[in-house]
Design brief:
Shape of chain B: flat
Strand content of chain A: under 5%
Number of strands of chain A: 0
Mean pLDDT of chain A: 86
Number of helices of chain B: 10
Helix content of chain A: over 70%
Oligomer: heterodimer
CATH topology of the largest domain in chain B: Alpha-Beta Plaits
Radius of gyration of chain B: 26 Å
Number of strands of chain B: 8
Structural class of chain A: mainly alpha
CATH architecture of the largest domain in chain B: 2-Layer Sandwich
Radius of gyration of chain A: 19 Å
Low-confidence stretches of chain A: none
Number of domains of chain A: 1
Low-confidence stretches of chain B: none
Largest sheet of chain A: none
Distance between the termini of chain A: 12 Å
Largest interface: A-B, 19 and 16 residues
Order of helices and strands of chain A: HHHHHHHHHH
Strand content of chain B: 5-15%
Strand order of the largest sheet of chain B: 1-4
Largest sheet of chain B: 2 strands, antiparallel
Number of domains of chain B: 3
CATH class of the largest domain in chain B: Alpha Beta
Number of helices of chain A: 10
Chain lengths: 206, 263
């Protein structure tokens, strides 16, 4: 059990990294990775929201959209096609609620994460992690671990890439490459380097 | 039937979510200082950033937390007094700042080095050998400044940008947009401006433009205060020393020095 959880966690960080391998959440990856501080703040908010969103959407999927009759093992009803829209709705409500609660009871945390929370409301990486958890058939605990791992993977990608971008600022690329083009080229190299992790985790934990 | 279930389910989930949010907003409201809203109402709302803050809302918050009230350039004295009245402090002095375009080279004056048929943007044109005009320092005239101005105060006529001082608030958006860096913020309305930025030697300038500064030094020699200096082949005025006597405007053979009233 522990080995499987560890395997899920680490493979989400390295092998199935949401940004660099699955190419989800590219918008904040390019937008907020300019400075290490904001990259770190954004990633912490993503870890937080991903875990929380999974904790809420997993029961919704299991008990509301596609409940299984324990006696027969068949679906009581199948509303699986509503998954995307219901998940978006719930994640949006959840993020807003968390923001209100944080503003009231945790002002320092709100000040640190506050700017980034609304950005995450409809982030595809958050929606992606909740849906892929269901598609992979993970249990509740596995889903949570997977979401946390995806968040940490996002953090790793953001922090690594903000370092790369700092180097890019000093570099003098040809004029036509300045700004976003050279950033995208650098992002693709970072992504290729993560391809090298493929297969590592399975071999370590099995 | 399926449609009905789907609609009902999503509506119910949405309503529950909305209900939770409404309750949360009601019971966990954070009291904001009402003065922030009042101060913000005094500011022009252009969000230009000339005050050094991220926008009008951010500056209003900073004022309530004790920042000086006279930092808003577009709002000028009116905004400063309004904010000062809310805060109960002294407004302080606000200078009238206007943008000036440091070039007089309209279409017929400036010689062309090639015909430009690309994107209608100064920034794009400037990337092609400094623009289509022979003088690489002058106004290109595609109106990047005009597009950037939130107040409609700058217009391109005959290939040269003109500032309407009545509408200009001195926010500096045009200055940021100009790829030639020839829009300056001028804070002394009774003192002259050298409307040229050509740093080439007089003879070369003369070939490119019939009215550009040729660094003849006449203004420098005739200035009673020693406020005007020719530096790097173009005259520049030190506004701390300038008294606005207008001597340089009279002696300039190229008529490139002008008072703001005569632009």
């Amino acid at each position: 059990m522990a080995a499987k959880l560890a395997m899920i966690f680490f493979s989400m960080i390295l092998v199935d990294n949401y940004v660099l391998v699955k190419f989800l959440g590219i918008c904040p990856f390019l937008g907020v990775s300019k400075k290490l501080n904001s990259a770190f703040g954004m990633s912490c908010a993503v870890i937080f929201v991903m875990t929380l969103a999974t904790a809420v959407t997993w029961p919704i999927q299991t008990y509301l959209l596609t409940p299984v009759d324990p006696a027969t093992g068949e679906l009581r009803w199948d509303l699986g096609y509503l998954q995307t829209i219901v998940f978006i709705l719930i994640i949006a409500v959840l993020v807003q609620l968390v923001e209100i609660i944080m503003k009231k009871y945790m002002p320092p945390l709100h000040k640190a994460l506050g700017v980034y929370l609304p950005l995450i409301t409809t982030n595809c990486a958050v929606l992606g992690v909740t849906i892929l958890n269901i598609d992979n058939g993970y249990s509740f605990i596995e889903s949570i671990v997977c979401a946390a791992g995806a968040g940490v993977g996002f953090l790793l990608a953001m922090v690594l890439f903000s370092g790369v971008r700092k180097r890019l600022e000093d570099a003098k690329p040809p004029k036509c490459f300045e700004g976003l083009p050279i950033t995208l080229v650098a992002a693709s190299f970072t992504s290729i380097s993560f391809m090298g992790f493929g297969g590592i985790i399975e071999n370590i934990f099995s | 039937m399926t449609i009905a279930i789907a609609v009902v389910l999503v509506t119910v989930v949405g309503l529950i979510g909305a209900g939770i949010l409404v309750l949360a907003a009601k019971f966990m409201q954070v009291e904001e200082d009402p003065r922030i809203g009042q101060v913000q109402a005094c500011l022009p709302g252009a969000n230009c950033g000339a005050c050094g803050y991220a926008g009008c809302a951010d500056y209003a918050k900073a004022i309530v937390e004790g920042a000086p009230v006279n930092k808003c350039v577009p709002g000028g004295a009116a905004a400063a007094q309004g904010a000062a009245a809310v805060m109960g402090v002294d407004a302080g002095e606000t200078a009238v700042v206007n943008a000036v375009v440091g070039c007089k080279g309209a279409n017929e004056i400036c010689k062309r080095q090639y015909e430009y048929e690309g994107v209608s943007s100064c920034r794009a044109a400037a990337a092609m050998y400094g623009g289509p005009f022979a003088c690489p320092y002058g106004c290109i005239g595609f109106g990047d400044c005009e597009k950037a101005c939130p107040f409609g105060a700058i217009h391109v006529e005959n290939g040269l940008a003109h500032v309407d001082p009545a509408k200009c608030t001195g926010c500096g958006m045009c200055k940021e947009a100009c790829p030639q860096k020839i829009i300056w913020m001028h804070s002394s309305q009774d003192k002259p401006v050298v409307m040229c930025a050509n740093h080439e030697k007089g003879a070369i300038t003369n070939k490119e433009c019939s009215i550009g500064c040729i660094a003849c030094m006449k203004c420098e020699k005739n200035c009673p205060e020693g406020a005007i200096k020719v530096n790097n082949f173009v005259a520049r005025i030190d506004y701390d020393k300038c008294t606005g006597c207008g001597k340089c405007v009279e002696v300039c053979p190229r008529h490139v020095i002008a008072m703001p009233a005569d632009f």
